[in-house]
Every structure is written in C-alpha cells, then in structure tokens.
Amino acid sequence: MADIGTETIDTGKSATGDPLLVFMPSGRRGYFPKGTPILAAARQLGVDIDSVCGGRGICGRCQVVVSEGEFAKLGVTSDTHHLSDFSSVEQRYADKRGLKPGRRLSCQAVLLGDLVIDVPADSQVHKQVVRKRAEMREIILDPVIKLHYVEVREPDMHDPTGDLQRLEEALKNQWSLEGLDCDVRAIQGLQQALRKGEWKVTVAVHMGKQITAVWPGFQEKIYGFAVDVGSTTIAGHLCDLQTGEVVASSGLMNPQIRFGEDLMSRVSYVMMNPGGDQDMTRAVREALNDLAQAVAREAGCTVEDILECTFVGNPIMHHLLLGINPIELGWAPFALATDGPVQIWASEIDLKVHPNARIYVLPCIAGHVGADTAGVILSETPYESDEMTLIVDVGTNAEIVLGNKNRLVAASSPTGPAFEGAQISCGQRAAPGAIERVRIDRETLEPRFKVIGCDLWSDHPDFAKQTEAFGVTGVCGSGIIEALAEMFLSGILTQDGVIDGAMAAKSPRIQAEGRTFLYLLHDGQPQLKITQNDIRAIQLAKAALYAGARLLMDKLGIEKVDRITLAGAFGSHIDVKYAMVLGMIPDCDLAKVTSAGNAAGTGARIALLNRGARDEIARVVKQVEKIETAVEAKFQEHFIEAMALPHKTSPYPHLAKAVKLPEPKLAAQPDGTGEDGGRRRNRRRG
Amino acid sequence: MADIGTETIDTGKSATGDPLLVFMPSGRRGYFPKGTPILAAARQLGVDIDSVCGGRGICGRCQVVVSEGEFAKLGVTSDTHHLSDFSSVEQRYADKRGLKPGRRLSCQAVLLGDLVIDVPADSQVHKQVVRKRAEMREIILDPVIKLHYVEVREPDMHDPTGDLQRLEEALKNQWSLEGLDCDVRAIQGLQQALRKGEWKVTVAVHMGKQITAVWPGFQEKIYGFAVDVGSTTIAGHLCDLQTGEVVASSGLMNPQIRFGEDLMSRVSYVMMNPGGDQDMTRAVREALNDLAQAVAREAGCTVEDILECTFVGNPIMHHLLLGINPIELGWAPFALATDGPVQIWASEIDLKVHPNARIYVLPCIAGHVGADTAGVILSETPYESDEMTLIVDVGTNAEIVLGNKNRLVAASSPTGPAFEGAQISCGQRAAPGAIERVRIDRETLEPRFKVIGCDLWSDHPDFAKQTEAFGVTGVCGSGIIEALAEMFLSGILTQDGVIDGAMAAKSPRIQAEGRTFLYLLHDGQPQLKITQNDIRAIQLAKAALYAGARLLMDKLGIEKVDRITLAGAFGSHIDVKYAMVLGMIPDCDLAKVTSAGNAAGTGARIALLNRGARDEIARVVKQVEKIETAVEAKFQEHFIEAMALPHKTSPYPHLAKAVKLPEPKLAAQPDGTGEDGGRRRNRRRG
Prior knowledge:
2 copies of one chain form a homodimer. Chain A is α/β, with parallel strands linked by helices. Helices cover 29% and strands 22% of the residues of chain A. A 6-stranded mixed beta sheet of chain A has the order 16-15-14-17-19-18, with helices on both faces. A 6-stranded mixed beta sheet of chain A has the order 30-29-20-21-22-31, sandwiched between helices. In chain A, helix 8 (371-380) crosses helix 15 (611-623), helix 11 (532-556) packs across helix 16 (633-641) and helix 14 crosses helix 15. The first copy, chain A, is elongated, with a radius of gyration of 31 Å. The relative contact order of chain A is 0.08. Mean pLDDT of chain A is 91; it is low at 1-11 and 674-686. Chains A and B meet through helix 3 and helix 4 of A and helix 3 and helix 4 of B.
C-alpha cells in the first residue's frame, strides 16, 4: 500500500517516489502509486465522494475537477497532464449524459503525477441542501433510501441459490451491506428485473436494512414527498432524493373542510356522525393522492418513483391521516393515540406511490400540539440555541414553543380564527382584492392600503385601474392586524381597544354605530368597516396568544425573550412590527423577530432528506415540557391583562424605540361617558 | 428476602423459621416467608408457571395442586392446610370459568407452612405439545405471539402522553417488555379498547417486539393456522396458541388444478398465458380464505382470532402463494426467487384473518426442493440423529433427503405421477371403489384385493354387497404397488419387469395383448388389467426414485441407510414391504422403515408453535447440500440399473429375510423368444 499522508500539511516527498494527491476542500492528502483511480484514493482517505454505480462509469456522481497550478501552501504543483486522458468510458458517459468542461469521472481517471483534485459540492454523498434563509442550520443530505447499482452472479444449477440471495451477496460484496430483508413486492419483481437488466440492477435500500425496490440496469432518480397536512390547506414538496432539491411543489384545499371549517367542528362532526372519521380519513387520503399526482406531473416523473414520504400535521390531522378516530382529542384530557413517530407503508394510508414506499409521520407533542409543531421545532432548532427563542405558529390555534438548548416548553393557545379574517365583519381569506397593508395618516386619519394582486397603494392614481378586475373586497388577516395597529398608533383606538368617539370630530371615517363607534376603512362597494366587535375579536385572539407565551415564560422564569420566530403562512404575511404593536407577541428586539414561513413543512422536508433528523426530533419531542393552557390558573389572568394594546402592564421598550406609541387616554363614548363605562361594559361581556 | 435453598436436596431448617416450599416435578425449592404467594415464589426459583393476567386471578393459567403427605426424600411434610384458604378471587374464577377439585390459583394462594406443590403440565409456559408418533422429538410451545394482560395508567392533561406510550409503559413495568413497536391498525383501535376495557386490556405481542393486537379486558384465546399448500390438496390445521392443541383441521382441492393437473402443466400455463400466474395466485389465495373460514367455523371462533399463519409448499406452490411468477422454475437453471424464509403480513397475500396477523413461509431449498421438504426436515429432524436417515416424500415429484447430524443432502427426482395412479391404464385417485391392497395366490395366481370404502377382502362373501354403492372402479397408487410386487413375488413378473407369458399356462388371468402380456386383476365392469405399459410406467417412476436416493448415498459415500421415512399422504398408505419389493427404496431393516404421514404439514405446525424452530430450519436449510439430479451423469446409470425388481445389482439382504424373493428367470414372450428379446425391445423404447 502507498505511504498515506495525514490531513496535516506535509511538503516532504514520498519515500517510494509516488505522486502526491490532495483533495479539496477537505485538504485530505496522500501518496498513491501511479495508476490509482482517483475515487479509490478518495475512499482510502475518507474523502466524501458519491457513487451509485460503484465505480463503473455509469452514474456520473463521482465527478471531480483538476485544480491546476502551483500550490505553495500545499507543496504541490498540480497539472492536468498528471491525470490520465479522457477514457472511452468517460467519453461514453459524456456522449450519453453530458459532462461539463473540466469535469472527470473519478472512478475512471487515474493518478499519473502530483495533483490537487477539487470535489464539487454536487459530488458529495452528504451534500448540503440549500435553504432560503441564511440563519437556518444546513440540511445534510442523508435520506433513509439509498440507491446501489450491483452486478449479480447468475444462477447455477449446481449451486442452487435464490436470486434474492445472490442479490444480497452482491450488495454485501459490492456495498458492504449485510443482513438485509426484502419486501415481498420487491421479491415479486426481482427475477424479471435481474433478467431484463442482464444481471445488473439498481437496488433501493431503506435504512441500510430493507430492500424496497429493484430496477433493471441503472436507475438514476428517486423521489421523496414531504407534506404538511393543514386543516385548511395541504402543501407538498417533491424532492429529488439524490440531490435534495425540491423539484415540484403544490398545494390544495383540505377537502375535510366540507365536514367543518375548523378543527373543533370536524371533531364535532365525528361525535355526531358515527363513521364520520372514516369519511374524513378517506377525503384527506384522496387529496394526498391528487397532490402526489400533481407534483409528479410537474416534475415529469410518475408517482411510482416516490419511495419515501414524510408528514406533519396538527394532532387531529395526524390522527385522521393515520385512520385514528380523533374523538378523544375533542374532550379533556385530550389523549393522543400515540405521541411517538409513526413509520409505516404508504399503502397503509392508501397512498398510491411506489408500492413499497414508506411514510414517516413526525411525532405529536400533546393533545393540542401536533406533528406540525414538531416540524417547526426541527426546522428552527431552538434546542441548539443559546438564545431564548419564542416560536409562534399562528393558525386557527396558535402553537407556542419557548426555550433554548437547556429546556423547551410548548403549549397551544385557543386564538380562534380571527387572525385569519374569520369573525371579522369585513374579513376574508387572503385572495386578490383583500386588503393586506394599511396606513393611517396621523393627522387626517385618512387610510391608504394595498390589496393582494396589486403592488400600488390605494392613493396611487392607477390603483383603481389596476384593481378593476377584482376590486377591493375585504380585509385579510394581515390587513386586520395593520388596520388595528395603525388605528391605535393614530389615536383612533385607546389602549383598551375602544374606538375613541372624540376622534369623530377629526374625521368622518369615525362613525357612531349604536353605543360604539366604527372606522370606515374603505368607502366602496362593499363598504369595509372596522367595528368595535371586530376589534374585540382580534383582542381576544391576541390576548390568548400573548397569554400562552407569557405562561411559558413563567414556566421558564423569564421576563423577556431573545428571539421570536413567526411560523406558518400567516406569519409570512404579517409585518412583525404591527404584530408587536398589537401585543400579539412579547417585546423583543425587532431585528430578531423573523418569519420562518412554512416551518412545519420544512421540518417534514428535513425528516425526508436526513435520517438522523428523525431520531433527533423524536428525542427532542420527548424532552419538551407540555403545558395545557386550559388548566393553568394563571392563563386567565394573563389573558385579561393582555387585552390591552400592546399590554396593560408589560412594558415594550424595544417597540417604543421603533415606533412612537400613543399616550394612554380614555375613549369618548356615544353616550358621552368616558372610557371607564366602556371598559365595564366590555368586562361584563368577558 | 427469604433464605432461598438450591435445587439440591436440603433437609436443614431455615435459620429464620420460614416454611420450605418444593415445586414438583422440577424439584426446585426454597424457604419463603409466610404469606408469600406461590406464584411469586415460583418466579424467584425460576419455576416455569404460566400467567397471562400477571397474577390478577383472571387468566387461570397458573393453576397448581398441593401434594399432600410426608415426603421423606424431600425432607418435608406437606399439608393442604399449609396453603391459604380458597380466596374470594379464586372463588370468582371458579364460579365463572370452573376449577377442577384440588386446583388452586398460585397467584392467589399463599404459603403458610411447608409444602410440596405440583405444577401440572398445562400450567407451564413452555408446555410440551403431544405428537402422535412417539419417536418424534417433542414440540415445546413457544409461539411468536404471546398475550399479556395489563392495567394502563389513565391519561392526564398535566402530563400529556399518548395512550400507546402509557400502554408501552405498562408492558414494561408489568411484563418487562421494552422497545416495542406497534402496528398502525393496532393504534387505530387502541383508544377504544382501552376505554371499553376500563384501562385493562390484553395485548398480543409478536416476537417480544411488536404490538399486533389490543383487546378490551381479558382475551383468552388466540389461534394459529398451519397450512401445507400441495399441488393437489391444501391442508390446514388450526391451533390454539395458548395450548398448542390442534382444534380444527380441514383440507380442500387446490383450485389451481383447473390450470393444470401437475406442476409442470401449471408452469406451462403461465408460459403460454401471460398473467396466468396471477390467476393461479388468486385461486390459491381464495382457497386459503375458504380453508381459514372452514377451520374457524369448526373451532367456533372467527378468522379474526387467527394471529399467525405458517405455510409449506413445493417451490411452485410457494412462489404462486407469494405472488411470484414461477416461470423461472420451469426451465434450467430452475432459479428460485428466494431460498430464505419469508415473513410478511397475512394481508400481503390477501389472507383475511386478523388484520395484523403475520405469515411465515418456510424456506425453499432448491428449484425442485421446496418449503414442504424444509417442513419434512423440521418434523423428522434427521440433522439431530446419529442414524443415517433417508427421507422420501413421494408425490408427483419425489423429494429425497439423506443424512444425519453431520451432513444432509437433498434432491428431487422426476418420478412422474405414476405412483398416484396416473399414467396407469386402470389407475385412479384414492377414492371409494379404488383397489388399495392386493394379494396373489402363489399357486393359482388368483388375486384378492381390498377397495377403499370397504374393510373386507374381495373373496369375502359380503364383499359384493358392501361395495355395491361404489363398485370396483380402478386401482389407486398403493394398489398398483402391491399388485406389481405380488405379481413379482408370485412369478408373473420377471426381475426385469416383463410379464412372463409362460405363466399363461397356469392361469387364464395372464393374457396376450399384441407382443406383450397383461394380468387381469378384476374381471368386472370395468375390467381392470395390469398391462406391460403400466408396469413400465411404475418401473420408470421407481427407478427414478431409487436412482435419486442412490445418488445421494454416493454423495455421502455410503452403501446402506439406517432408517427410511416415507413422508406424504402416499407414504401413509403404502405397505413399506411392497415398496421395498419393487425396489422403490434401498434395502433397510423393515422395522426401521416408517411412514411419517404429512410431515411437511407437521413442519408448518412446529414453526407455528415454536419460534426457535424458525431459526433452526433456516439454519439447517442453508447447510443442506443440494443435488440437481438432472445434471448428474451417474443419475442415468443408477436409473437404468434400478429398472429391475427390486434392483439389477444391489442386494436386498434385509428384504430377503422378510420376504421369499423369487429366483431370477427369463420371460416367455408371445413370439416364443426368451427374455433377452424383450429386454432389447424395452431398451429401444428407453
């Protein structure tokens, strides 16, 4: 064997005169005899270079590039001619599949002299998958399913062994995989695949233990499907399991909506309709099949190419997906059927992908804190952070996670659907024509706004023309937040959330309505008014959200958080400053309040692409301390204090630096009394 | 803790004055404080006493009996009054389920003074299952599925854990079962079972690892189903997995017969009809469902009570059962898809038993030696014997196994269906009216016979009356064997298998037919004649069988075998002496030639009842040396020599002692030539 150097820099020469080979970026180096294939040298040095075909020049995953020049620091002069000429195997590969200039197949190219070899990121086994947000931890590609190309010994009458046993022998000899099992459906197709491939096949091995698929010849692509099953929408990403890339994404409405808009109405449906759970299970599974078809079509593959799926969802979606009646989640003590991860066959949830595909469902945390929250935790990794991080996933319920690497607590808070525009007189779903941004002039109290589908503010001369097709039809969740925050900042709303009738003198947009006032946001067709009831609905929702977060802060004995992450589609659309003005979240440095987008879905994708992440989230979820807000005495107290804007007692020093908060004042009421009367009235309603 | 004695006899007294407790038949003994439950003491001493309910007086499996009297050898005086009085729990059990006089529940009865306690066989966990044949090794009950009764902690909102996790906690605390997985279909029914059982459930655990079923309250019975899938008949036994007893047996025709009578014609069907394999797979699976229904009905249970199934069958039946196209088994090199055991869900072969039931299919050995032979080996355990044992499973093909604890060889021999009465002019399947026994008077050459369905010989005056309903319709396999053997012993047949025309002078039953003679076995309606062609068919079959056995003897370098076992339904019906007269099997002490009945099916039953047997047969099968008769040059040579009766060259010393073998002679031919001419003619035919 060659005199193999270490990773440290060594400018000495090999005693035997063997050339020096240095791999970059790892810096691993060694002396190898002339004629050594680059891939073989890399294997010896533990350099991470991918290969599916096992060095046969078929898969093209082991590509490398020569770094030419004199590398003084490395003590080596690297020359392209120190690598063997382009071989016929490489030429065949290049002709058939294409090879970028300078790229070589490291299994074919052999060492002839000193060389520096660069391993591109896309040639690594454990590639890093690019994530959009820079602050996130990287995803290292290490899926549960891996492909292995093998050449299998032909059967011999004198030594009668099964085709499967000879395949296993090949996997052992060529890939060091031992003690494998094989799905019966893979056995059923095995003999034909071996003969069609002339004893060369590609094998998919699950978790290094289970043969799940066998294709004749070389199989290049397999796919994974990561799905977030929301109560309202189901979103799926199709990923290339060889590169980790998202190759198609799609979403559709959860058809369970016909059984009830929100979670509780779906559980009620089950309570009142025996067998209703099965109807909803069937509905969501059909939708998943549609979604799988859609992403496969978009990616130009078939659903049979999908070998692995991962799922997140709240506890009720989780149970219905798995065919578990969610009725126990509808009443105390809100017992989950299981809080562990579930790994089963896709066929067990009637998902028509590859017949041996597995699905992995992330673990639920508690009766109100589901696998979606587990996905958020996996994506945002608060358990790896020093910073005390508050994560809020805002949907119909808000799931709240707080903690750092020492401790994590989680709860669910019953915000109701007000943040999504429901229960609001002018509310509507986020769709073209919905107001999503609002500004109110501090002097004139005149509003301007933006609607979804148009980039212009409403005071722009072209606004009417550009919105002609859909009009101005309502206010969506983020629009409500901004409207209320701006009303508060411009003095229309008092800190107690009462529209100050005295402001009617300043603007005709403040109008009396019975014993309360309203603010006319848009005098069009339809008229869009923010009523006192609308404000109360948002106050109740935001107070629930804040109280939940506050309860978790109590549990950890802290008064402030270092970082706030807003997860969920809603979190992506709201302006965090306005969320803080309303007191939805505790005070925090605004630079550290970010939106994580669909972090639950990202968690599903991580579990799809990295098998270690599954153990990780299962371990973390067990350690999360679960708080049931409904039975915590202090929740009610926090809730009442959190009704005020931004809060009755908590100071908001960071917010005060960023925004000019109005002075506290009393509201004038239609009957001429001050705020106190209004507050008493509101308390009676509480 | 008490001063615990050892298993050795110790007449000394306990230092603390604790009573002495001796368990029989194990002899294990120890001193325990008064008030110790007998079951608890047994656990400490490692005495094998069963319990499903964990000492709650529910299951009644821990029954013991007091042995009263003075036991000088044991040094103890045992008195019924040294055991606590019948408790209310025992009374409740006795009232509800019955308790034999003298029986006590060892979990309830406590020690009050010196006692000798007898543990009946039916109270042991690892009971011995009774087998009909005394020489067989015992089956120790240790099925893959075990029942455990547990009490589960109720859910708590303050400590939200899944119902499954609390069930697992109970299994860990109450049964020391850890690291369990759970089938998703068991999770689906879990919450309801726990609540219906008021947090007391019985759990079925597979291999100590997998929760496969959960029943509310105490579940007493679960069943296993062992099936031999033959080409002609499918036979199944339903076993009580708590006792090991066969509670129902049933059989039916393999419906694949409509695609082809024998194996090769079924493979041909697949070759000529694409998709034909799926038709046959569907057919056999439907039959299995019918069979499961039939045995469940007979046992008074439902198919959902069947939690485990085991299967044996020849390679083609094995492949078709598992949905594997058997086409590769139809041509050289006869490659099996797999030669390993297969363990999958029953649902994967569309078997409608318990939704989480598993099936285990014993391993095949080679392309012509199947899981049925593995079953025979497991049942007959030649690998544990010092004696050189020849096992012959006679069907359409004959599977032959030879060896002892040092070495095992196996082969298949193409006997064809002649032994089953096919290819014989007067042949028929074993059914009422078929001749199964034949005797020929050595002087008069007059035959007498017995037919299936009547116990009388044909020369009995009542024979005609008793067979009136079905008549005398043909000759079945065992009848052919006896007819030929008797024809040989009475001089009608020469050792070369030629009907001696000279004997026509002695009896009108020997009649010329063209250039050969025939023997008129029965002059009725129809006439039953044994023709020269019939004799040739049997000669070819028996020569193939003998040649296969001889080939294996060559491999092991032996000239004689110590024991011969005839397996299969056919083996049960033939008289081994006549089989030896024809030279179907090598010479052997007739006392050591036995029939094992359906040993393949017994092997399936062993694998059902004892989990260790599965590892055992998988290990043994790997060690079996497989001989492919078709490519062994010596096979043809052995075959030709074996055409003679009993054999051209091999002496039959044991047989000669038991039977008066005729002197060799030449046959007179219709054209007046001697035997040589006949032989030459036959050789031309070969």
